[in-house]
């Protein structure tokens, strides 16, 4: 696949401090894949492709046990330019990240959500990359490496949001990023 720079935008303002307060207090204790799904069509191995990566995260807290649980969800879809508008490859994965936290004092739900949408995605990204790379090979397709997670400069938007990026890929013969 052709090399393309990932432009993951993290928009934040001074209002990001609730998420930063959470990240200051946690320690990652466990990462697990809890659900996955993959599919390919007969056209998946040929032609030029583009692909999308989308992700989101949910968060749960367990104050009695002292844990924050983040559930990142990742979606990969590859499209063949010459065939159809339907994806020719789909890979989905859900992970659970368990963070130990000793002190919940002063932390808010908004902070937990900011933490999940930034740190949770960032911490799960290497596992996601490895999962996609192995799954693509196991599907009998040419190797693919998902780029590292990139953080770009904040903008003036009032919310922290992260979006996956669109990528253009080359022919099957040059599938490496």
Report what the structure shows.
- By secondary structure, the protein is of the alpha+beta class.
- It has one domain (14-168): Bacterial Protein-export protein SecB (Roll).
- The protein has a five-stranded antiparallel beta sheet with strand order 1-4-3-2-5.
- Helix 1 crosses helix 2 (109-138).
- It is built from two helices and five strands.
- It has helices at 17-23, 109-138; strands at residues 26-40, 49-62, 67-80, 89-101, 166-168.
- The N and C termini lie close together (5 Å).
Strands, total number: 5
> Number of helical segments?
2
Order of H and E elements? HEEEEHE
Secondary-structure arrangement, i.e. CATH architecture: Roll
Lateral strand order in the biggest sheet:
1-4-3-2-5
What is the strand content?
A: 25-35%
- CATH superfamily, by name, is SecB-like
**In one word, what is the shape?**
elongated
Radius of gyration: 18 Å
The chain-level structural class is alpha+beta
Tell me the CATH topology: Bacterial Protein-export protein SecB
Low-pLDDT stretches:
1-14, 154-177
Distance between the termini: 5 Å
Number of domains: 1
């Amino acid at each position: 696949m052709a090399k393309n720079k990932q432009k993951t935008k993290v928009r934040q303002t001074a209002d990001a401090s609730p998420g930063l307060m959470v990240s200051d207090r946690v320690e990652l204790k466990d990462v697990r894949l809890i659900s996955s799904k993959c599919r390919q069509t007969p056209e998946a191995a040929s032609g030029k492709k583009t692909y999308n990566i989308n992700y989101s995260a949910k968060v749960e807290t367990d104050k009695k046990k002292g844990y924050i649980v983040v559930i990142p969800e990742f979606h990969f879809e590859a499209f063949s330019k010459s065939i159809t508008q339907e994806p020719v490859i789909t890979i989905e994965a859900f992970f659970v990240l368990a963070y130990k936290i000793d002190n919940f004092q002063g932390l808010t739900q908004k902070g937990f959500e900011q933490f999940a949408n930034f740190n949770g995605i960032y911490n799960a990204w290497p596992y996601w990359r490895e999962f996609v790379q192995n799954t693509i090979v196991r599907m009998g397709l040419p190797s693919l490496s998902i780029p590292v997670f990139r953080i770009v400069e904040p903008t003036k938007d009032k919310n922290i949001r992260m979006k996956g990026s669109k990528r253009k890929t080359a022919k099957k013969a040059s599938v490496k990023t």
